[in-house]
Each structure stands twice: as structure tokens, then as C-alpha cells.
Amino acid sequence: MLNLQSGPDTDVGKTAGSTAETFGQLYEQYLPKVFQYISFRVGDRHMAEDLTSVVFEKALTKFQSYNSAKAAFSTWLFSIARNTVIDHYRASSKERNWKTENAAAVPASDPSPEDEAVRSEEIRQLRSCLSLLGQTEKEIVSLKFASEMTNRQIAGILGLSESNVGTIIYRAVRKLRDGFTGWQK
Q1: Taking the domains of the chain in order of start, what are their residue ranges?
Q2: Is the pTM higher than 0.85?
Q3: CATH number for the segment(s) 101-185
């Protein structure tokens, strides 16, 4: 039962266009965030592209049954993305290896060798700090910072309370900050 209503989650609810047009607009809106989330989780650009494609294929297949009364579109879509990543790891029988080299943005201009060395060391330190986080913390950090989701959206996806998500984010960021404390002194 397709039921899209206007709200902060989507501006498509006011459009009286066809299902294909509506889905196309949602696809354009959410593609970058879903790709960022998956890329952060799998650490491989080509695999992230493939899995993002699978997510939107699943979403399109089930789009007629989406009901905004049950969950916001972003919550529904990121639940599909999360489950797709989990299925990927199950199917490939790989240990979940959180690669974070793609988590940092690539600078627009060519960096100097000194800047490149500093950046490389910062990324190494970030990887080290991220490896100290638990699975739930990594999941929430990836949804919050790679996908730019709100605590409420994350809570809906993971089945946690919004305040619990906020607490986990606070503690995870504090662990990461503590890992960097004194690092460049």
C-alpha cells in the first residue's frame, strides 16, 4: 500500500505523479546517502556500487507496499540497505572487516607530499581508533556520519530508543577523540 505523505523525510508527497516518477525522485534524493553508508560499511567502491544497486532494486520491487504510517521512507530504505549489507557478508562468509580508507573524503586538489604524509598518518590513526569500537557503535557511527541520518532515523532502523542512539554516539565519538588526544603533540 503506497502511502507517501509530505513531511521532513521527503518532499515528494505533494507530487501527484506516477509511481515511477515518485520513486525516481526518491532515488535521486537518497542514492548518495545510501551509497556513502554502504561504502563505509564494505570499504570497496565497486562492491558498494553493486550493493547500492541491489538496495534500490529491492526498494523498487517492494515500493507499492511501502506505508509511511509504519516508518519514514528513509528508515524503510536504510533498513533495506542495512539488511543487504548483512546478507552480503553472510553470503560471502567473510568476517566483517570495517575498512575505513573510504571514510575520509579525497581532497579536490593534489596535496603536497607533506600533506599527503600527514593525511596518511591521520587515516591510520582513525582506522586504529575505529577498530576499538564495538559493532553497534560502528553501525551507528556509519549511519550518523557517512549517511548523515538523524538519531531518530537511526533508532528506527536499529530498533533502539532515540536517547540510546544519542548516548552511543556520544560515547563512540568520545572514544575516537580520546584516541586522537595527544597524538600530534
Answers
A1: 1-97, 101-185
A2: no
A3: 1.10.10.10
